[in-house]
């Protein structure tokens, strides 16, 4: 059984005080939802305060990005050892905004995934096609390539913590959600590709989240599908009541 995982990506929103205020309002709303793994990914500056505030709560805290090296002359970067030192447990890797604006590639995703696994950080690896790729019938090719390169050279035995987020780029922040049928088909392609690269038991155990304009009113229809194991939520995760309602509606 794959445990449902609902993660919030707060992007470049919320100060430390705003982040802890969110948790104060949010935690009571989901206190009966211990069957669902809940992860908040704030900005780097909010991580320490949020890790502290989440200690007595069943909410995990993750980063939105990291470098793959432990240290070095890389101005502006944060290393995996810095994340584990403050108690972060999860990390988003290869979000489409990082691919689009910060030159993240499938190769750097692979380096970051190896590093996250080596540091016992739960990696949430984001994949997804652009609109023109979908319209040119290239979705399956894009997803297969992204998954294959991400997992290249990794011992399948190390992949137990792997989480993949399918985030069609055309659905992120646009209000345009993939239909449950489109999402389920893409998730099946991803799971089949994981099986090709890492074997069927890794594929069966890997949680694949859907991300792209998830809201309280579409969370149920998406998360009840066999191959959808949760959601990565951007805009609708910024408000405690809305994010809590997504968790409540997604839980089945
Ligand atoms: C995201 O940024 O990962 C995301 C899915 O954003 P939104 O929910 O706003 O589309």
Account of the protein in words:
The protein is α/β, with parallel strands linked by helices. Helix 10 (216-223) links the parallel strand 7 (207-211) and strand 8 (230-233). The mean pLDDT is 96. It has a single domain (4-26, 36-233), classed as Alpha-Beta Barrel (TIM Barrel), CATH 3.20.20. The protein has 11 helices and 8 strands. The radius of gyration is 17 Å and the shape is globular. Helix content is 42%, strand content 15%. Residues 9, 167, 172-173, 211-214, 232-236 line the site of phosphoenolpyruvate (PEP). Phosphoenolpyruvate binds next to strand 8.
The CATH H-level homologous superfamily: Aldolase class I
* Biggest sheet record: 8 strands, parallel, barrel
Strand content: 5-15%
CATH class: Alpha Beta
Which H/E pattern describes the elements?
Answer: EHEHEHEHHEHHEHHEHEH
Structure keywords:
252 residues, 11 helices, 8 strands, binds phosphoenolpyruvate, globular, alpha/beta
């Amino acid at each position: 059984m794959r445990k449902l995982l609902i993660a919030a990506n707060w992007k470049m929103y919320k100060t430390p005080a705003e982040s802890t205020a969110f948790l104060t309002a949010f935690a009571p709303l989901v206190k009966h939802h211990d069957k669902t793994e809940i992860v908040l990914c704030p900005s780097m500056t909010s991580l320490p305060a949020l890790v502290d505030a989440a200690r007595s709560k069943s909410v995990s805290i993750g980063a939105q990005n990291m470098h793959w090296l432990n240290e070095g002359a890389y101005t502006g970067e944060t290393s995996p050892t810095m994340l584990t030192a403050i108690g972060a447990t999860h990390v988003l890797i290869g979000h489409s905004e990082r691919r689009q604006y910060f030159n993240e590639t499938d190769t750097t995703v692979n380096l970051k995934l190896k590093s996250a696994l080596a540091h016992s950080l739960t990696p949430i690896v984001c994949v997804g096609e652009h609109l023109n790729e979908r319209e040119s019938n290239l979705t399956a090719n894009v997803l297969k390539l992204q998954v294959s390169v991400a997992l290249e050279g990794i011992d399948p035995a190390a992949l137990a913590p792997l989480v993949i987020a399918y985030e069609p780029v055309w659905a992120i922040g646009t209000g345009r959600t993939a239909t449950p049928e489109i999402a389920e088909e893409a998730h099946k392609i991803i799971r089949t590709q994981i099986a090709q690269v890492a074997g069927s038991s890794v594929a069966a155990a890997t949680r694949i989240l859907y991300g792209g304009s998830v809201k309280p009113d579409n969370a149920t229809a998406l998360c009840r599908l066999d191959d959808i194991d949760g959601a990565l939520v951007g805009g609708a995760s910024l408000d405690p009541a809305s994010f809590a309602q997504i968790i409540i509606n997604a839980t089945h």
